[in-house]
């Protein structure tokens, strides 16, 4: 191609045709510019395609993480149901509706406990934060994801950090003995007759039930939100 233009340029120069030579020179420049623009366009298209594929990959990972969190949250909420039944049973004993028996030890232990802390999976969101949110082009979806991970999750977990007060710990240490039972340690009252007439003990059992229900209610609110976000992600993936 270069030799071709050189031959034309030499012939035009020999024929003393500067105007035609200038036209061919300008045409050559235009062709080069067009070639560069085409190459840049192809490169930009390839980059956009790579970004779109990366965005889809991240959304798929987010959907997997969120589905995992939904499953764990639903299990967590369900686990609270027997604990509340244990609390109701102990309250009935304390109120005299049910007589005390040794079998109450296991029930009492569960009635005094809160559920374990909850941890959610956020690996995909961490990746998204590191590489930038430009990969998620749907602003509605992007804002929903950010709100869920930066606001709703932390706000929910804040309520799970409701630990025992020093007084509660001292109270349990004074009145209960940890003993082995069902392959774990359980709390056995030193004197259940004393506990039967202790108003603070009744208050503590009620408090534990209230805490569990409060945690679960907060979790249900976030669970509704997370299911909406998951559906938004699924819709975005289907539209690609």
Describe this entry's structure for a reader.
This protein is mainly alpha-helical and 240 residues long. It has one domain. 77% of the residues lie in helices and 5% in strands. The protein contains eight helices and two strands. A two-stranded antiparallel ribbon has the order 1-2. A hairpin with a 2-residue loop joins strand 1 and strand 2. Helix 2 packs across helix 3, helix 2 packs antiparallel against helix 8 and helix 5 packs antiparallel against helix 8. The longest helix has 77 residues. It is rod-shaped and about 105 Å long. 15% of the residues are buried.
Largest sheet: 2 strands, antiparallel
Strand order of the largest sheet: 1-2
SS element count, helices: 8
| Average pLDDT over all residues | 78
Radius of gyration: 35 Å
Structural class: mainly alpha
The percent of residues in helical segments reads over 70%
**Backbone shape:** rod-shaped
Summarize the topology.
Blueprint: H1 2-14, H2 18-94, H3 104-112, H4 123-131, H5 139-159, H6 166-175, E1 176-181, E2 184-189, H7 192-196, H8 199-239
Antiparallel strand pairs: 1-2
Helix pairs in contact: 1-2, 2-3, 2-4, 2-8, 5-8
